Amino acid sequence: MAKRLQKRRSNDPEGVRRRIVETAFNAFTTRGYGVTTVQDLKAAARVTGGAFSHHFPTKKELGLAVLNGNVADAVEQTWIKPISQAKTASDGIEAIFTEIIRELDQQGFVSGCPLGNMVSEPVGQDGAMREAAIAILAQWRSQLAQKIRADQLAGRYAHLDAEAAAIFIIASYWGAMGIAKASQSSSALKDCGQELLRYLDLCPSQKP
Predict the structure, then answer these.
(1) How far apart are CA 189 and CA 101, in angstroms?
(2) Full 3-state SS string of 17-43
(3) Of the candidates 144, 129, 145, 158, the residue with the CA atom closest to the CA atom of residue 68
(4) What gap in Å lies between CA 120 and CA 125, rounded to an integer?
(5) pLDDT over 70 for what percent of the chain?
(6) pLDDT, tens digit, 9 for 90 and up, residues 18-65
């Protein structure tokens, strides 16, 4: 008698977890953390309640996973890595704004800055999630300040306070992205990028 073939059960817990986190990242940074329900996420990720709660017993734990994973990665890939690899802070900022504007114009809509979207939500009122967001912001600021200090050693931006300039650049971008999201247009980012470059260029240099 031929052996009965048994159907192999699919078991990919890591794949399920990644799908939940990716679904949550998209929902939290577009619709908002507060208005997105666990039921919404289960339906969008196509997972059962048991599978969802196995990985994330609470919405807060999922929010932390999104912040420490996808949001941190987005800041790393969009800002930290390009700034660290750029010749100067000005070169990095110009390249970053050019790429962001290109992507937004190509996709035809603006969802905003992932970190900005998250911290403007109730996550800002929760201690653990606030600390996670602050840690990402601190890394972002640190990399910008480090690039500015390196430029200063080469004679650029002589009168800038590196730490203050870094937070000014982030705040300017953050605000411009919020305006771009509200207007669904990249024009605010274009203006912001040009003015940030003007701001850096206007700082006196030690060398001609």
Answers:
(1) 7
(2) HHHHHHHHHHHHCCCCCCCCCHHHHHH
(3) 129
(4) 9
(5) 89
(6) 999 999 999 998 888 888 999 999 999 999 999 999 999 999 999 999
pLDDT in tens, 104-125: 999 888 988 899 888 776 555 6
Closest CA to 20 of 40, 49, 42, 48: 42
Residue 203, pLDDT score: 54
Indicate the Cα dihedral angle 134, 193, 117, 144, nearest 10°.
Answer: -20
Residue whose structure tokens are 């850096």: 200
Identify which of 99, 110, 201, 112 has the alpha carbon closest to the alpha carbon of residue 157: 201
> In this structure, what token pair is assigned to residue 166?
């870094």
Which of 71, 77, 163 is closest to 119 using CA atoms? 71
- Cβ 127 vs Cβ 88: under 8 Å: no
**CA 85 – CA 73 distance, rounded (Å):** 16
For the entire predicted model, the pTM comes to 0.85
- Which of left, alpha, beta for 120 (phi over 0: left; psi -120 to 50: alpha)? alpha
Contact between residue 123 and residue 129 where contact means Cβ atoms under 8 Å apart: yes
Residues 6+ apart with CB under 8 A from 42: 48, 49, 52
State how far the Cα of 173 lies from the Cα of 167, in Å rounded to an integer. 10
Residues 77-101 have pLDDT tens digits of 999 999 999 999 999 999 999 999 9
